[in-house]
Specification:
By secondary structure, the chain is an alpha/beta fold. It has two domains: 2-86 and 210-248, Periplasmic binding protein-like II (D-Maltodextrin-Binding Protein, domain 2, 3-Layer(aba) Sandwich), CATH 3.40.190.10; 87-196, D-Maltodextrin-Binding Protein, domain 2 (3-Layer(aba) Sandwich). The protein is built from eight helices and twelve strands. The longest helix has 14 residues, at 21-34. It is elongated and about 55 Å long. The model is unreliable at 1-8 (pLDDT under 50).
Length: 251
């Protein structure tokens, strides 16, 4: 009789950032193929801060984040486990008919001083800027690393996207749109990832990237979460991570 009992799966919900979510979903799918006793769920983004808060309050055991912990967060017993460096990317709706920009042109577009794609060699089409909130991890990195972005005042004639997925969808569906977010191979479906100063996000010399990491509470890591973290660092998964255009933390 016992042999006929169905296996009861444990659930691991990994909450947090929208950065690197497709990559994490692929890792989760592979993990469940190896260990079907654990159901791994990667719900929609609640941001890095939301994931950290959830772990800190005990409502989640494992978070996905795209920023480092503050001293105050570490003091509360939170542990930061790097997974991969995920380059940022600038992407456009293909109808814009551009494949590259200089960093100066990019800054001028987001400042609102270049307003038509024909000004940078593209289609005669109004540029529609998609932005993110100031706390967004990619925007923070762009301000720190991309020439002209440190004190850039983003044009008020822009659409605010609340999540990475919303930004990508807005660019896919809107002619003339341009957005930014973590680089992923899935961006090649429906958008065009631009070269900036001649460099693709997958180029090691590309300056802008965020670090994707797990966060958990010291002494509160479940066996399922510990097993999943170890699986993420296995040779097969580091290869998968590279296929998504990211650089594993071990490299």
């Amino acid at each position: 009789m016992a042999a006929c009992q169905p296996v009861i799966a444990n659930e691991l919900v990994i909450v947090g950032t929208g950065d690197g979510v497709e990559m994490l979903q692929a890792v989760a799918e592979k993990f469940q193929g190896v260990d079907p006793t654990v159901v791994v769920k990667v719900p929609p983004s609640i941001g890095s801060g939301g994931g950290i808060t959830a772990v800190g309050s005990g409502t989640a055991k494992l978070a996905r984040v795209a920023r480092v912990l503050t001293d105050a967060e570490r003091a509360r017993g939170l542990v930061y486990e790097p997974v991969a460096r995920v380059p940022s990317a600038i992407y456009v709706n293909p109808a814009a008919a551009v494949t590259r920009l200089t960093s100066e042109q990019l800054a001028a577009i987001y400042a609102g001083t270049i307003v038509n794609w024909k000004e940078v060699g593209g289609a005669d089409q109004r540029i529609r800027v998609v932005r993110r909130e100031e706390a967004d991890s990619t925007l923070v990195v762009l301000r720190a690393t991309m020439p002209g972005w440190k004190d850039l005042q983003i044009t008020e004639r822009s659409k605010m996207a609340i999540s990475t997925q919303e930004s990508v969808e807005a660019v896919r569906l809107t002619e003339g749109a341009i957005g930014f977010g973590p680089f992923s191979r899935v961006l090649d479906i429906g958008t065009k990832v631009l070269l900036i100063d001649g460099l693709h996000p997958s180029d090691r010399r590309y300056p802008s990237s965020v670090e994707f990491a797990y966060v958990y509470k010291q002494g509160d890591l479940t066996p399922e979460a510990a097993k999943f973290i170890a699986f993420t660092k296995s040779a097969d998964m580091t290869s998968l991570i590279r296929n998504f255009g990211a650089v594993p933390a071990q490299d």
